[in-house]
Design a protein that fits this description.
Strand content: 25-35%
Distance between the termini: 64 Å
Mean pLDDT: 87
Number of strands: 22
Number of helices: 11
Low-confidence stretches: 1-27
Number of domains: 5
Radius of gyration: 26 Å
Helix content: 25-40%
């Protein structure tokens, strides 16, 4: 059985592409003008698109026309806008994922398999419990009537979940949350005593809260942010040609889904103030400077550089040799790489650099730990503090 490669290209003696393999007897390489970047397919012509569809359907893919997608109609976005702005216009996906019951080893539907109390359709065994005795639940009390406790949470250990009655029972011990610790956790618990009640079961005191299944914010007393320790009586596998693969196996020969772009509507892209966003986004990276650490640590590794090069080569008017020279000298940090690429793409680039409260947390955290902040970190932290919305988010963490 041969492997069918969607796209492969040699540059400078090394394979710089990510090769997406589809198990078929024929090679998709015969289709010209199809370029794979970051798992997505960019097609340069209508004829290439039709040939690609033939190959994908022969393998077993279903192909959705996103021009007819509900979200486009709901948002009032025109097809012309999708084409001009380079939106994905097709979505290919294949149904290969199955659940495997640990009790009977049968293959079952994955729909609902990790919902609390789900049962195997073959043998009737429970495949999953979300909450069992000893599960730790980190949660916030839901505030109503205009109450505001800022960012606050608490952790408690569950005893059981009565899904029929819609109650969750906790042991009375209180543990630190992510945002609150020590006495402040206890104060938070007592402040919200109208949202829980103390009950007794088998001579032991428990804390009971309203927690329906399915969860409904309008009804529930709590909103979990983390639930750890579940009961699993199944695993997820992928099945192709009667062979099972572990869910995370790198040997699986198919890409389960792919976005497909009709590049002839917008390529080649000319130099522009925001061209860098298209290039960086195609590589699967964020083009906002404040998203990254500001201390100079690397963020753009070789894989991302390879993806960007493919996009530049096939879908822009940029000089590829000049691009290669620029990349060799570019700083690998998030902000450094973004600014270098942006300046290469246009003399007056428009770069998104909006610091957020995460920059405050990181900056103050390092300062309190005795570490020195570099200029970029200090600037991002100060700018975020000056922003009323971001500073409000930050100080909300410390409200009582």
């Amino acid at each position: 059985m041969k492997s069918l490669y969607i796209y492969s290209k040699q540059v400078g003696g090394g394979d710089i592409s990510e090769v997406v393999k589809i198990e078929r007897r024929e090679m998709l390489e015969k289709i010209k003008d199809v370029v794979e970047i970051c798992g997505d397919l960019y097609v340069k012509s209508q004829s290439a698109l039709e040939s690609l569809f033939d190959e994908l359907r022969r393998v077993g893919y279903q192909i959705d026309n996103l021009r007819e997608a509900d979200y486009r109609k709901k948002d009032g976005v025109s097809v012309e806008t999708m084409e001009k702005n380079g939106w994905s216009l097709w979505f290919a996906h294949i149904d290969v994922r199955r659940g495997k019951c640990a009790s009977c080893n049968g293959l079952i539907d994955v729909c609902g398999i990790q919902s609390h109390g789900h049962k195997c359709e073959l043998c009737g065994a429970v495949t999953y419990y979300d909450i069992i005795d000893g599960t730790r639940v980190q949660f916030s009390f839901i505030q109503r009537n205009g109450d505001d406790s800022g960012i606050a949470d608490i952790t408690m250990k569950a005893k059981r979940w009565d899904t029929e009655a819609g109650y969750l029972y906790f042991y009375p011990e209180i543990f630190d949350g992510l945002w609150l610790q020590g006495e402040r956790v206890k104060q938070y618990f007592e402040t919200n005593k109208d949202k829980w009640e103390e009950v007794e079961e088998d001579g032991k005191k428990l804390i009971r809260v309203i927690y329906p299944q399915p969860w409904n914010r309008k009804v529930s007393a709590i909103e979990p942010s983390d639930i750890s320790r579940h009961y699993f009586n199944h695993k997820i596998v992928r099945v192709w040609e009667n062979k099972e693969y572990d869910d995370c196996s790198s040997d699986f020969p198919l890409s389960e889904s792919m976005s497909i772009y009709e590049a002839w509507h917008w390529a080649p892209l000319k130099r522009s103030p925001r061209l860098h966003e298209k290039i960086i986004g195609a590589a699967g990276m964020v083009s906002r400077c404040s998203y990254y650490y500001q201390d100079g640590r690397p963020a753009f590794y070789d894989l991302y550089l390879q993806r960007m090069r493919l996009f530049v080569e096939h879908f822009t008017e940029l000089n590829l040799d000049a691009w290669d020279r620029m990349i060799r000298r570019a700083e690998r940090s998030g902000p450094g790489m973004i600014m270098t690429i942006a300046r290469f793409c246009h003399d007056k680039p428009e770069v998104d650099n909006s610091p957020n409260f995460g920059n405050i947390l990181v900056g103050l955290g390092k300062a309190l730990d005795g570490q020195k902040l570099i200029d970029g970190e200090m600037t991002a932290m100060v700018d975020a503090i000056k922003d009323p919305r971001e500073s409000e988010k930050f100080f909300g963490v410390f409200r009582k």
